[in-house]
């Protein structure tokens, strides 16, 4: 058997493996984003008329899919075959106005209106030596950030959101594993913390639209993520009280930074461009919303994260565990 035959055989096996794995992930159908996973987890009750109609025609689609042939471009519609095989029907989502839902990062029922009435000036006075250390750590981290980004708030926001989305995921992961290890409930905190991580990631998806990271900034994100993920995980294992306190102070700084961002938008130093389409859909903003509206919504989110993390820290401070106090879910 020569090497080309062996290589061909391996490729065929890999292709089969790829198709098998692809069934668990999101798949794009042509130009229309159609999400395959999680549909049975509450999605069907919220699907639009168009989605329901899509479901009705799915059996005929399945038949057609099984006999799919290479298209004129030579591509197989393999995704549809995979969907049919696993019995997971693709649903085409639409917005309230009937137009196509084009985001794969989130779904219509994840969108919300930011509660901008949240108190932006709320602050936690350090009560212990640990609190003061966390406050100092955050202040110290701000110093290099200010030097590196100056007042380039768009870029600054985008870069900092790559970090801000880490703590919620680490804490949620930690609590998840703890719940498994100790056979215990968690008071809804896993979901609350993962919601925070997802919300921060949506901030990043938004600011990506108004800022384009340079190669060295992308390299910085890689480096910082590697360090920060491990450092925060270790901190959370050692003292969730202090880990949450630090994030609480980080969020206080985030509120401050976005307030500065707004000042530059209002003074004209930064152009108040139209809001990215993804932001309009995520925060249910008006069609003519601007970047200012987006920053106001993001700042409100950060204030909520501040409250949640200081609250979590206070729970530990009072000698309780998170599982003993119901988590603030859907707290935007
Ligand atoms: Fe954020
Ligand atoms: Fe935040």
Automatic annotation (TrEMBL):
Key word Metal-binding present: yes
Cofactor(s) essential for the protein: Fe cation
This enzyme's EC code(s): 1.10.3.11
Key words, A-Z: Electron transport, Iron, Membrane, Metal-binding, Mitochondrion, Mitochondrion inner membrane, Oxidoreductase, Respiratory chain, Transit peptide, Transmembrane, Transmembrane helix, Transport
Reaction it catalyzes: 2 a ubiquinol + O2 = 2 a ubiquinone + 2 H2O
Tree of life domain: Eukaryota
GO biological process: alternative respiration
Regions of compositional bias (Low complexity) in chain numbering: 53-69
Chief place where the protein resides: mitochondrion
Enzyme class: oxidoreductase
Membrane topology note: Multi-pass membrane protein
GO CC annotations, alphabetized: mitochondrial inner membrane; respiratory chain complex
Cofactor annotation remark: Binds 2 iron ions per subunit.
InterPro entries referenced in this protein's UniProt entry, alphabetically: AOX (IPR002680), AOX_sf (IPR038659)
Ranges for region Disordered: 53-73
Coiled-coil residues: none
Pfam families membership: AOX
MF annotations from Gene Ontology: alternative oxidase activity; metal ion binding; superoxide-generating NADPH oxidase activity; ubiquinol:oxygen oxidoreductase activity
Subcellular localization, as worded in the UniProt entry: Mitochondrion inner membrane
Biological role stated in the UniProt entry: Catalyzes the cyanide-resistant oxidation of ubiquinol and the reduction of molecular oxygen to water, but does not translocate protons and consequently is not linked to oxidative phosphorylation. May increase respiration when the cytochrome respiratory pathway is restricted, or in response to low temperatures.
Protein family membership: Belongs to the alternative oxidase family.
Name the UniProt record assigns to this protein: Ubiquinol oxidase
Species the sequence originates in: Rhynchospora pubera
